[in-house]
């Protein structure tokens, strides 16, 4: 299958295209209304949506089940994830599980092997993108596709941004809405999409995997630790992505904090040092 298949054969998702254009235009407009209060609002909501919502909630908890939390906290993290405007939890998780199941193949939703543009943003404009069918959702999310709360969030994921936008308008008027909703969302989109594109193109590879995943420190810095992508693809279930002391993983720090507080349980974290020691002991045992 060629790259032309995606660009020319698949139908254009017109609603998505229009929405993305509008968000980018308003994000540019936000730059002309700078204030420290607006910046603070954008940064705080970016952390809530991108780190707590996408990183912890959608990705490490729901997609890979790297840890468990009480239902009320799971729903809260999913609500935070909807603020990123990257679709609802069931749709997002379905797409990401497909990505892991078919990485770098024709069935991968956003492989750079079909072009960096396609992997970064082109994939959301054509074909299935995040618009997964009910059959596909139930196939890839059998663990929570029928959960009533998650289904509501999946269908109405945009409502959280509307509610937060109204709150921001009441606090700081239209400029704060431009920063806290539109500019923050666009920046969050591109940071997340860089994990799809850049970390499959540039960086280092600690583990030999069947895909092109890379560890990229810059992407990790702007995605709260999601850029340690080769580590992640080698051990997808691990709630810890930064495996070396110099691989700072802010999302992992927050999961550890939840564990210390007794809110996160059954936390699985791959430990390279421990596994290396086990391997050496196994080698010694086999030679004795």
SSE topology sketch:
Blueprint: H1 3-9, H2 14-30, H3 36-63, H4 71-82, H5 89-101, H6 116-120, H7 134-140, H8 148-155, H9 159-197, H10 217-222, H11 229-234, H12 250-260, H13 272-287
Structural class: mainly alpha
**Number of beta strands:** 0
| Unreliably modeled segments | 276-288
Largest sheet: none
Q: First CA to last CA: what distance?
A: 52 Å
Taken from the alpha-carbon principal axes, the silhouette is globular
Report the average pLDDT across residues.
92
What is the N-to-C order of secondary-structure elements (H for helix, E for strand)?
HHHHHHHHHHHHH
The rounded Rg comes to: 20 Å
Strand content: under 5%
When the domains are counted, the total is 1
Helix content: 55-70%
Oligomeric assembly: single chain
The helix tally amounts to 13
Describe this entry's structure for a reader.
This protein is mainly alpha-helical. The protein has one domain (3-207). It is 61% helix and 0% strand. The chain is built from 13 helices and no strands. The protein has helices spanning 3-9, 14-30, 36-63, 71-82, 89-101, 116-120, 134-140, 148-155, 159-197, 217-222, 229-234, 250-260, 272-287. Helix 2 (14-30) crosses helix 9 (159-197), helix 3 (36-63) crosses helix 4 and helix 4 packs parallel to helix 8 (148-155). It starts with a helix and ends with a helix. The relative contact order is 0.14. Residues 276-288 have low confidence and may be disordered.
């Amino acid at each position: 299958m060629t790259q032309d298949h995606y660009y020319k054969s698949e139908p254009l998702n017109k609603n998505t295209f229009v929405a993305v254009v509008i968000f980018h235009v308003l994000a540019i407009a936000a730059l002309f209304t700078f204030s420290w209060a607006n910046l603070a609002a954008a940064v705080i909501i970016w952390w809530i949506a991108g780190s707590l919502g996408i990183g912890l909630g959608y990705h490490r908890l729901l997609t890979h089940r790297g840890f468990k939390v009480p239902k009320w906290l799971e729903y809260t993290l999913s609500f935070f994830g909807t603020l990123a405007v990257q679709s609802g939890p069931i749709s997002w998780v379905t797409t990401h599980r497909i990505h892991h199941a078919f990485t770098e193949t024709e069935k991968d939703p956003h492989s750079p092997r079909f072009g960096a543009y396609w992997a970064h943003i082109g994939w959301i404009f054509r074909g299935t993108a995040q618009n997964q069918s009910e059959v596909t959702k139930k196939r890839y999310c059998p663990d929570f596709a029928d959960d009533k709360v998650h289904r509501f969030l999946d269908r109405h994921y945009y409502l959280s941004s509307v509610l937060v936008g109204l709150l921001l308008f009441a606090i700081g008027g239209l400029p704060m809405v431009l920063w806290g909703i539109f500019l923050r969302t666009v920046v969050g989109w591109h940071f997340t999409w860089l994990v799809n594109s850049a970390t499959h193109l540039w960086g280092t590879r600690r583990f030999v995997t069947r895909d092109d995943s890379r560890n990229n420190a810059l992407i990790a810095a702007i995605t709260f630790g999601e850029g340690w992508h080769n580590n992640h693809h080698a051990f997808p279930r691990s709630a810890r992505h930064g495996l070396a002391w110099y691989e700072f993983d802010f999302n992992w720090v927050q999961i550890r904090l939840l564990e210390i507080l007794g809110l996160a349980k059954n936390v699985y974290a791959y430990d390279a040092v421990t596994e290396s020691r086990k391997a050496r002991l196994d080698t010694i045992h086999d030679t004795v």
